[in-house]
Fold this protein.
Amino acid sequence: MSTTETTMEKIVSLCKRRGFVFQGSEIYGGLKGTWDLGPLGVALNNNIKREWWKMFVEDREDMYGLDAAILMNAKVWEASGHTGAGFCDPLVEDTKTGERYRADHLLKDAGIAADGLTIDDIDRLIAEHGVLSPKGNPLSKARQFNMMFETTIGATAGPAGLVYLRPETAQGIFVNFKNVVDTMSPKLPFGIAQIGKAFRNEIAPRDFLFRVREFEQMEIEYFVKEGEWEVRFEALRQDIWKWFDHLGLRREKVREYDVPENDLAHYSRRTIDFEYDYPGKGFDELAGFAYRTDHDLRSHQTASGVSLEYTEPDGTKFIPHVLEPSFGVGRALTAVLCEAYTEDEMNGEVRSYLKLPVHLAPYRACVSPLLKNKPQLVEKAREVFLVLKKEFGNIAWDDNGNIGKRYRRHDEIGTPACIVIDFDTLGEENPANQDTVTIRNRDTGAQERVAITELVNKLTIATV
Ligand code: ATP
């Protein structure tokens, strides 16, 4: 049972203390909107991506994988609308300090509905409600700010070499639609999935990994016949819920927000934001799910002059419509950590631990000798460690401090099982226990003796 409240501060502090997430470029004072994943963070992040890929690509027959380049021909972003107003956020400046803010966020923070507003609406509302900057100073007029990072390709600078860091992985999928159809001959409905980095020059990065300037996305473009979009949308909606279950997110902590019509992109007929109840922040976007009609393929067909039609077995040609589930890896990782963070009382002390699902935990188990200065214990423990490491990969070796400290450390990083090799294992105390070890359960603290020969099987089937 949780004894105290989970806060974002506790999670950020655990992440730093235990090697999950560090501030980007920390020794130089950091770089706003960037974070680095430490040894345990990268393990958790990779587990999330691997499970996603397994669930949405490998376990299905209607999905194809892709890994497109981050740098793409600038014409892609003109055709997709990203170079125009469609990919801008409203920016205001503090007139005294020059600090920049998202105008819609300032309005929301002041309790004013800010969806679907024009720049003029924003200026009017700021004036009407006397909204000030967080520093208490008057705000400048709002203007549109494009979030794409620009860079130049090749040795000569200038407009000809202008390229962008992709702000989403989705366009890499659309421009490869024809390649996938030509090489794999998929039948509708089918999806193309991709995991990769995306970059957005967010005006005001904030809330840990929630709003950053460099992040990872896991996206699917699911191509359907126009007349079937509603049934396919519903089926994918259920699959998305199953994904959140698999991440261990309780259903009451996730909700759907049906984006109102006046806030839908002009080509979208339905968009659902899946929101998670982040501690101290409340419900906010975890993933998006949009029906985008045939807008993207049609725009690329027009701009490139290359046919992006799909041909039915009977020869009928048409541009498929598309459903887009889009997940941010960092937001999923944050939700998983918030969900897993637990405080309880054990042996009269408050302990904090991560109740991570086995398939996400950075380490599957930890192996320790009871004492590190007894060579026979260490030798036996190394034997067990190497067998398990060969089998599972993510097995930790820990002989630092006393056993209690090791348990506490592994509770805090979410290791589901701690295995200890003691004098019984060597047959020195109770011969009946020779070649058995103790396994301690992270969540209950309960220990049981298990034969070494049973360990692999035990760890394979255990869910905690
Ligand atoms: P928001 O409204 O929160 O800015 P969005 O609607 O612009 O998000 P999408 O363009 O739908 O986001 O991107 C899909 C997913 O990518 C989001 O649901 C989120 O998980 C992730 N994402 C988008 N922007 C960021 C960011 N700056 N930092 C971290 N993750 C992000």
Notes: The chain is about 30% helix and 25% strand. Residues 23 and 29 are 9 Å apart (CA to CA). The chain has a mean pLDDT of 94.
